[in-house]
Amino acid sequence: MEITDLTPAECRVRDAFPLGEGVDFREGDDEDPEQGGSWGPERTLRAEVLRELLLGGPVQTGRTAGLKVAGARITGCLDLKYGTVGHPVRLRFCHFEEAPELYGAQVVNLVLSDSVLPGLTAGNLRADGVVRISCCRITGPVRLRGAKLSGAFFAGGARLGSPGEVPEEPVLQLNHAEVGTDVWAPGLVAYGKVHLNGAVVRNQVNLDDAELIAPGETALHAEVLTVGTDLHAMRLRTRGRVNLSGARIPRQLNLAHARLSNPDGQALRASSSVVGELWLREAVPIEGAVNLRRARLDLLHVPPEVWPRHVRIDGLSYRVLTPHLPADQRLPLLEREPEGFLPHPYEQLAMAYRTVGDDAAARTVQLAKLRRLRRTQPPYARLWGWLQDAAVGYGFRPMRAAGWLLLLLCTGTVAFALHHPPALKPSEAPAFNPLFYTLDLLLPIIDFGQDGAFAPRGWYQWLSYLLIATGWVLATTIAAGVTRSLNRQ
Fold it and tell me: Which residues of the chain have pLDDT under 50?
């Protein structure tokens, strides 16, 4: 391009480039780049001019060249595909008529903050520094699939897509990208799908106050996402599914105060994920199903009222459950498994209570598990289970046995005291004692010599049969309870 072809605006940029100085075309700080299509030639730059500067522009010894422009209207396509740009690129508050093309390019850093663009294509981009689209308004897709950034990716306050539309193509694509530090996007608004599948972020992902809108679709698709520390999404608002299946988040997945909504499907899927701490503190009740199957957590902080109607938790493991609540407030969650009764969630909840030393709550959970199991059994097994439950709560309520034994002992003692059973061999029989005679009937492992010496008749004989039968039931259920206690079931 001949030097005589440059406009005055382009000459200003050319002269500032080798010095690394900025050129600001704005007439005031409150200008809106959305209106940039009407800006005149005095602040219009051709994309081909910028391309020539970035790929082969003049440099000055002792100075760091760089393209630093604010408030310009950029016409044409800034095509840096497969190019190597050794200078920083900073195009802020600019209005792009066409989406920049940086596929496979290598840059020092790329700053497009506060600009308006119809899209950005930068798949397989290599950046030695940061990439910024903070506070940008981008109507088309931002393609960064496979990008490798040594620094961070900033998208805080950006607005992607168009309200009322959910395009087929994701509006933000970071699939299989590698980010050297953070993905920093608090306040991001995305009218469409956001993809982070297979991405590796060395430090943290920040989506605090973000709004992801893709009704009926997957608003955040982050399967097998690997994060170095945390994924912060406090006050996140989603319409559509959040998919974190297989994600690796060693510290916090913080969804405190979040509002997750996908009424006709899954609102949150984190199956097979490995997370340090999952927080849904003070979140709005989730609209849609939750899938946490086979997930592994160290701490799970979810108030009971946050859970939706359907929660898949088979295989979910956690060490600590907060806030610490009575077992009766946690048990309804286990009834929301769509597959019906599954023993593992009960065992996991009981283990969590034992971890914090609440053995009484752990026993309550185990008792609830056996009662739920009873509903799935044939009639004869349900009857036997009901007897064990009524007698001693399947061994988890041993004081009930003492009450039953005392009641039966009093009943038998009074009955046989009023009507002594005749002796089988009067000459050899010991003196009759109604108390010890009743104990002989109730406790099969104890023999006071009364049971074998006397033979009641009539309805007293039926009473003795009842005492023997109930004694066996109590003995077996107590033995089962002792066994469970010893095994810490």
Answer: 1, 488-489
Give the Cα-Cα-Cα angle 239, 241, 247 (nearest 5 degrees).
Answer: 135
Q: Calculate the alpha carbon distances from 265 to 85, 253, 449 in Å.
A: 45, 21, 70
List, in order, residues 6 or more apart from 427 with CB less than 8 Å away: none
pLDDT in tens, 183-239: 999 999 999 999 999 999 999 999 999 999 999 999 999 999 999 999 999 999 999
Q: What is the pLDDT of residue 334?
A: 93
Torsion angle, CA of 241/247/249/253, rounded to 10 degrees?
10
On whether the CB atoms of residues 147 and 170 are closer than 8 A, the answer is: no
Write the burial class of residue 32 (CB in 10 Å: 0-12 exposed, 13-18 middle, 19+ buried): exposed
So what's the pLDDT on residue 165?
86
**323 cis-preceded (ω within 30 degrees of 0):** yes
CA 34 to mean position of chain CA atoms: 37
What is the pLDDT, as a whole number, of residue 50?
Answer: 95
Write down the pLDDT at residue 478. Answer: 63
CA-based radius of gyration for the chain:
37
**The pLDDT value given to residue 62:** 83
Tokens linked to 322: 């907060």
The pTM assigned to this predicted structure is: 0.81
- Can you tell me the distance from the alpha carbon of 96 to that of 119, in angstroms, rounded to the nearest whole number? 9
Instruction: Give the angle subtended at the CA of 12 by the CAs of 7 and 13, to the nearest 5°.
Output: 100
| pLDDT of amino acid 485 | 56
pLDDT, tens digit, for every residue of 260-309? 999 999 999 999 999 999 999 999 999 999 999 999 999 999 999 999 99
